[in-house]
Amino acid sequence: MKVVVLAATGQVGRPVLSELISRGHQVTAVARNPDKLPKSIPTVRDDLSSADRLAEIIAGADAVVSAFGPAKQDERFFSDVSYTDQLPQVIERAIVAVRKAGSARLVMAGGCGSLWYSPGVTVLESGYWPEKLIPIATSHVKAFAALRASDINWTYFSPPMQIDPGVRTGKFRLGGDDLIKDDQGKSWVSFEDYAVALVDELEKPAHERARFTIGY
Known about the structure:
By secondary structure, the chain is α/β, with parallel strands linked by helices. Helices cover about 30% and strands about 20% of the residues. The protein has a single domain (about 1-215), classed as NAD(P)-binding Rossmann-like Domain (Rossmann fold). A hairpin with a 2-residue loop joins β6 (about 115-120) and β7 (about 120). The two termini are about 30 Å apart.
């Protein structure tokens, strides 16, 4: 499968890239600074600011994975929705690009704020979501809405409340719109297992034009 990974040097992009390569897929990594990646990986330098340019990059791909997220190093990440709204803007451009290029599918590494924490109450509304992460969660809600309103083949993959570097176990649970918690009430997964589930979805689609989520 030919897969283009957008924002391939980030915390989500790197493990997804590694998982795709380990399974023998043909990948192209798109990054603002592709020098951070091994020379053996085909790369394209791009900042995702042009839908037309993005359409050129993804032409011929079977699928596109967006691992884009605004830089956390900028203090506005934790306070300014107009800054984190780069996210839905990039997704809107990716939607246009996928349509133009005729790529089969767009899979987005999403957020968990719109998941149901309890019946009728989202994670974002639950009171358990950190205040400093409200801007990025709000922007993710907008990106999710843009996908649902589009006419392309999309998938939105929500992580649990906590996602950290860890180990690849290949053992996890999947769900739909409800937050997944373990027996201790913790909602978490490693980036490595998140990547496993994302690539599983690419290989055997089960959530086309839908959202799904993961947790231990």
